[in-house]
Amino acid sequence: MTTLLIVDDHPLQRMGFRMLVESQSDLVVLGEADNGADAVRRATELGPDVVLMDVRMPGVDGIEATRRIIAAGGRSRVLVLTTFDLDEYAYAALRAGASGFLVKDAQPEELLAGIRVVAAGDAVVAPKLTRRLLDRFADQFPVDGEADASATAERLGVLTDREKEVLTAIGRGWNNSEIAERFHLAESTVKTHVGRILAKIGARDRVQAVIFAYNTGLVSPDGN
């Protein structure tokens, strides 16, 4: 069973999400929250597998709530729900530690699939959407300080040549099947490479690996 916490300041929106989730035999809603501060408190109390997080809420918004939940070091992963697919808050949410984002008007099956993907430990941002998101917000990537740059270079240095190739492909928004086809590998082998890459660079999920690829220069804003 995958457990969820639903966070949204609109009661009807929460009710809609709850009805959808509870229609599935493998998903269960542990609770709801109508603001970011309450979301943090309830995530700590309930320890859900996935937090469905609205971004725009009064007081503590979804980005800050996401940051606090992830910083607490619990088991919960955050799936951010935005109004627009390139909402200016989406990138900030990913930087805060969210495992991905979906638009609120996504098809029910897309939301359910996204919940399951995030619960399984992967990111839910579609490759093409990742590419568009990072292209739009590339100028907001932080410039590493000397110490941070050294640490980043050290993490990059522990990757094998093949792992660097796979990480570059991840940074370009390729999915596992596309990477497998490009490098003539079994998809299971690609999954193994991705898991090792995430562990070596200290990335929580695929989204953070994309950001790492940008920050290290493996992938440039023009996609090369």
UniProtKB/TrEMBL annotation:
SMART domains: HTH_LUXR (SM00421), REC (SM00448). GO terms for biological process: phosphorelay signal transduction system; regulation of DNA-templated transcription. Pfam families: GerE, Response_reg. GO terms for molecular function: DNA binding. Residues 3-119 form the Response regulatory domain. Residues 152-217 form the HTH luxR-type domain. The modification 4-aspartylphosphate is found at D54. PROSITE patterns: HTH_LUXR_1, HTH_LUXR_2, RESPONSE_REGULATORY. Keywords: DNA-binding, Phosphoprotein, Transcription, Transcription regulation. CDD domains: LuxR_C_like, REC_NarL-like. PANTHER family: TRANSCRIPTIONAL REGULATORY PROTEIN NARL-RELATED, TWO-COMPONENT RESPONSE REGULATOR. This is DNA-binding response regulator. It comes from Glycomyces algeriensis.
